[in-house]
Design a protein that fits this description.
The N terminus and C terminus are likely disordered. Helix 1 crosses helix 3, helix 1 packs across helix 5 and helix 6 crosses helix 16. The protein is built from 16 helices and 12 strands. The chain has a 5-stranded parallel β-sheet with strand order 1-2-3-5-4, with helices on both faces. It has a 3-stranded mixed β-sheet with strand order 8-10-9, with no helix packed on it. It has a two-stranded antiparallel sheet with strand order 6-7. The protein is an alpha/beta fold. 30% of the residues lie in helices and 13% in strands.
């Protein structure tokens, strides 16, 4: 592993004891087994007999290459969540590896809590395998119905922006965001590295980016894989991050390296927040991140038909083809699945053995059950003003001269009983005359971008699409036509704020209202899946 030039020393003592290492590695094997089997199996989930054609799906659809690395990350995050009692959510940038997150949810029990028919036993395991990427089942991506998911990952590039939106004004939350190195080549993700300029360590939570550098996209090497260790390090330091590198392919060595890196990263996040909140000085820190370099398709088949698969682009989707190739590939598939030794990981009835069952966090500390990633647990009714109050009475064609945005009553609300209301929206707030009746000036633009109108176009980071994605971290809603405003009423002194609903989506970023006493409290929107839009109340001083 190349020298880590971060200026921070790691302890020479191994962070994991032999028992911890054994348990963590077993859990990773179990997750990888469940992930691989979701691709292929309809029956014989525990391999209690030799595989036959009828055990397999007729069409294999899904992805493998990203999954072992994501399972590795998720498993290690479980360890630090449980040890440090962390409030953490997981965003899968390469969300096409949905079988990995589904496997993790099944292992910790959060999947069964949402879908009681998918029990945590042999019968439930068989149903889980069959329904993955199958007609009438579940998608192959980290879709909204996946417990713990706020980011589907099919449209690559928005994961990191979603993570920044999720932690805004959520001071105890850590959003662990896995960024695929292929995804990192998209425009939205490339600009999202600069989101750290807008994270306030006093009032916001923390984003922990984990660049999963497995070297390949669908059929080509990635840009980051063509860069040296030093070049990658310089890139991220130039973006304002403190990168920690975990690189290799020996699982036992990598477990120790990843545990050490995560321990150090969590301590650094807590130190940054503790110092800022103690002093009240909201200067911009250098937040930590992790660069994880592992083989694509790690632990999968090394070769198929004489061609390399692991650590190659061929691992991206289905590593061992079936269909017309079933007869000659069936034995190799079985050998691969048995290499995880499922008999050591699951009881005869399919339940996880105690070594596995006792590993993950419990309750809402499980990332699949975290309420911040399952918006239905936090929803409150969204109360809006009567849109009819802002109608223009047109008695005859051409008889009235008016503009809809001038009639829209944001100024009326702000200037009367809701004087502390804030307005959120993208760069077109002024251009579209949403804020023409609200007095503001550039003094309301702060170091962390808190302003009445978050002017996305004023920087290279927050383009309209980026601002959309940032807000989507805590407002995930869609509308096809512009139809006015939403007003959130809060209890007592908590000021409401408005959301401009425009075409495409709810665009913008929520903001604080700048006041001398800077006591700011407001409502925040959440949505999950198709359950509707509502808000969660938060307060800070």
């Amino acid at each position: 592993m190349p020298t880590i030039k971060t200026g921070i020393r790691f302890s020479k003592k191994q962070p994991l004891s032999e028992q911890e290492l054994r348990q963590l590695h077993a859990y990773w094997r179990a997750a990888n087994y469940l992930t691989a089997c979701q691709l292929y199996l309809m029956d014989n989930p525990l391999l209690e007999r030799p595989l036959v054609k009828s055990d397999l799906k007729q069409t294999i659809v899904g992805h493998w290459g990203t999954c072992p690395g994501q399972n590795f990350i998720y498993t290690h995050l479980d360890r630090v969540i449980k040890r440090n009692d962390l409030d953490m959510i997981y965003l899968s940038g390469p969300g096409h590896g949905g079988n990995a997150m589904v496997a993790q949810d099944w292992l910790d029990g959060s999947y069964t809590e949402v879908y009681p028919n998918i029990t945590r036993d042999k019968e439930g395991m068989q149903k889980l395998f069959k329904r993955f990427s199958f007609p009438g089942g579940i998608p192959s991506h980290v879709a909204p119905e996946t417990p713990g998911s706020i980011h589907e990952g099919g449209e690559l590039g928005y994961s990191l922006a979603h993570a920044f939106g999720a932690v805004a004004d959520n001071p105890d939350l850590i959003a662990a965001c896995v960024v695929g190195d292929g995804e990192a080549e998209t425009g939205p993700l490339a600009t999202s590295w600069h989101g750290n300029k807008f994270v306030n360590p006093i009032t916001d939570g923390a984003v922990l980016p984990i660049l999963h550098l497995n070297g390949f996209k669908i059929a080509n090497p990635t840009i980051f894989s063509r860069m040296s260790h030093e070049e990658v390090e310089c890139f991220f330091r130039g973006c304002g991050w403190e990168p920690y590198f975990v690189e290799g392919d020996d699982p036992m060595v990598m477990h120790q390296q990843m545990a050490a890196a995560l321990d150090r990263v969590i301590r650094e996040i807590k130190r940054i927040q503790r110092e800022a909140r103690k002093t009240g000085e909201a200067k911009r820190p250098r937040w930590p991140m992790i660069v994880l370099r592992t083989p694509k398709g790690w632990t999968g088949p090394k070769e198929v038909d004489g061609l390399p698969v692991e650590n190659c682009w061929r691992a991206h989707q289905v590593p061992i083809s079936m269909g017309t190739d079933t007869d000659r590939h069936l034995a190799q598939l079985e050998a691969w699945l048995r290499s995880y030794k499922p008999e050591e990981l699951f009881n005869p009835d399919g339940t996880p053995v105690e070594l596995i069952a006792s590993f993950p966090p419990t309750g809402r500390r499980r990332m699949g059950a975290n309420p911040h990633a399952n918006g239905g647990l936090l929803l409150r009714d969204l109360r809006t003003p009567d849109f009819r109050d802002y109608a223009v009475d047109v008695k005859a064609p051409g008889a009235v001269e008016a503009q809809d945005m001038y009639v829209l009553g944001i100024g009326d609300y702000r200037d009367s009983e809701h004087a502390d209301a804030g307005v959120v929206g993208h760069d077109h707030l002024r251009h579209c005359r949403h804020t023409h009746r609200i007095a503001t000036d550039d003094t309301e633009i702060l170091i962390f971008g808190r302003c009445l109108e978050r002017r996305a176009g004023s920087t290279d980071v927050d383009t309209m699409h980026q601002t959309d994605a940032i807000l989507t971290g805590d407002v995930i809603g869609h509308t096809d036509q512009p139809f006015g405003i939403g007003l959130c009423h809060c209890r007592e002194t908590r000021p409401p704020f408005f959301v401009i609903l425009t075409s495409q989506r709810i665009l913008g970023e929520k903001v604080d209202v700048v006041r001398d006493d800077h006591h700011v409290a407001y409502a925040e929107f959440f949505v999950h899946s198709s359950r509707g839009v509502a808000y969660e109340e938060r307060t800070h001083t």
